[in-house]
Amino acid sequence: MTRAKAFLAAPLTLLGLAACEPVPTSGGSSGGIITVPESVSSIAAPFQDLTTARVKAEDGCYWYTHRGPVETTELPLRTTSGNPICVRPAG
Which among 19, 23, 51, 58 is most buried, taking Cβ atoms within 10 Å? Predict the structure, then answer.
């Protein structure tokens, strides 16, 4: 009986994992993880993971990986006043 339950549970587990979207961990020179300059870390709001910060080529802003209790997501690095931190002006 235990074998039958395991036989049915394995495909369901794989189906659940297939729905997870991987978070990119590396890319080109502008997409990989970098060391955040002191000028950026000094204005960044607390509780952001600066060790995973990188500049996205699409917008020229710093993004970091937030690992929450339910999911892992990419979030823009922000100042204490809530503004995004970018290396080039928007637009």
Answer: 23
In the chain, the DSSP E strands lie at 54-55, 62-67, 72-76
Kindly report the length of the chain.
91
Q: SS3 for 40-57, per residue?
A: HHHHECCCCCHHHCEECC
Question: Which residue shows structure tokens 């997409």?
Answer: 31
Non-local CB neighbours of 38 within 8 Å, separated by 6+ positions = none
pLDDT for res 88 = 72
Query: Which amino acid, 69?
Result: P
pLDDT digits (tens, 9 = 90+) for 24-77: 444 444 455 567 899 999 999 999 999 999 999 999 999 999 999 999 999 999
Phi, psi (deg, nearest 5) at residue 2: -65, -35
